[in-house]
């Protein structure tokens, strides 16, 4: 039996959103995306992996519930890890033939637009890579589990290049800046709802790609410049520019969801109230101090500098006095690490 390898992997929250695929099977995106990786102390996936000649089949437990390992995406990840291990000759053939047991859990709501699949697949693939002693970049393998997972393989600020090659070999995540680059940057997660989303990201993307006119406009005319600009803003630590692009891209992503047919709604009234509050707050201060972004769910991620956290947090708790939304603050850092 192998050692039991346990890894934790972080959530990443995109500031330039990935929405739409050029190849569904290989999970190749139509546009580049950019994200920040959050601190694993607050939100993470934890996965333990073990292989043994005594195991009769590949098995997986997700949040304590046994799930099928026949899931195509998991199979693709495991197959590619074994291909890579064969190419790198990192383990012998007998080891490769042993079955695997996986145990994975998240410490935050699953499938409520909080990037749980990103952390989950990044963690699974990183743990498998450790077990099979793979040395090369595994972001392209994490991508086969869930597109956004490739960004969670790295810490700090990360860009996922859509790539142009048909086989997807250039569709990889690259770190723009590591966690030490902009230590003042913080994320505040406002949990508005923790129920499973009605339309999965995979399905939502499919509908938008086929039906939204705005979608084509975004891909061609907006994302390329925004991506370059936000990378520059990150490197220059220009929060005002970073915040403006982040909010505009979130708004455009949700506009595309509404422009899809039938329309897709991920945000709710509380999400919209949060947007209103942040604009009022920024207007009051005469410049952008806080930026919001929403993924495929109602929960908000606020990006802000550390000195702003004690100012906005009481305001949020005052305006939303119940536990809705729940809030938690996280610094940026970390990438997959072994525990
Ligand atoms: C993102 N989202 O960039 C965007 C913003 C949701 C909204 O990546 O089909 O779960 O597994 O590749 O990775 C969610 O998409 O979708 C996502 P698949 P995934 O974070």
TrEMBL record:
<keyword id="KW-0752">Steroid biosynthesis</keyword>
<keyword id="KW-1207">Sterol metabolism</keyword>
<comment type="pathway">
    <text>Steroid biosynthesis; cholesterol biosynthesis.</text>
</comment>
<keyword id="KW-0456">Lyase</keyword>
<dbReference type="InterPro" id="IPR005935">
    <property type="entry name" value="Mev_decarb"/>
</dbReference>
<keyword id="KW-0547">Nucleotide-binding</keyword>
<keyword id="KW-0756">Sterol biosynthesis</keyword>
<keyword id="KW-0067">ATP-binding</keyword>
<feature type="domain" description="Mvd1 C-terminal">
    <location>
        <begin position="187"/>
        <end position="339"/>
    </location>
</feature>
<keyword id="KW-0153">Cholesterol metabolism</keyword>
<dbReference type="InterPro" id="IPR020568">
    <property type="entry name" value="Ribosomal_Su5_D2-typ_SF"/>
</dbReference>
<dbReference type="Pfam" id="PF18376">
    <property type="entry name" value="MDD_C"/>
</dbReference>
<dbReference type="InterPro" id="IPR036554">
    <property type="entry name" value="GHMP_kinase_C_sf"/>
</dbReference>
<keyword id="KW-0443">Lipid metabolism</keyword>
<dbReference type="InterPro" id="IPR029765">
    <property type="entry name" value="Mev_diP_decarb"/>
</dbReference>
<feature type="domain" description="Diphosphomevalonate decarboxylase-like N-terminal">
    <location>
        <begin position="9"/>
        <end position="173"/>
    </location>
</feature>
<keyword id="KW-0753">Steroid metabolism</keyword>
<dbReference type="Pfam" id="PF22700">
    <property type="entry name" value="MVD-like_N"/>
</dbReference>
<protein>
    <recommendedName>
        <fullName>Diphosphomevalonate decarboxylase</fullName>
        <ecNumber>4.1.1.33</ecNumber>
    </recommendedName>
</protein>
<dbReference type="InterPro" id="IPR014721">
    <property type="entry name" value="Ribsml_uS5_D2-typ_fold_subgr"/>
</dbReference>
<dbReference type="InterPro" id="IPR041431">
    <property type="entry name" value="Mvd1_C"/>
</dbReference>
<keyword id="KW-0444">Lipid biosynthesis</keyword>
<keyword id="KW-0152">Cholesterol biosynthesis</keyword>
<comment type="similarity">
    <text>Belongs to the diphosphomevalonate decarboxylase family.</text>
</comment>
<comment type="function">
    <text>Catalyzes the ATP dependent decarboxylation of (R)-5-diphosphomevalonate to form isopentenyl diphosphate (IPP). Functions in the mevalonate (MVA) pathway leading to isopentenyl diphosphate (IPP), a key precursor for the biosynthesis of isoprenoids and sterol synthesis.</text>
</comment>
<dbReference type="InterPro" id="IPR053859">
    <property type="entry name" value="MVD-like_N"/>
</dbReference>
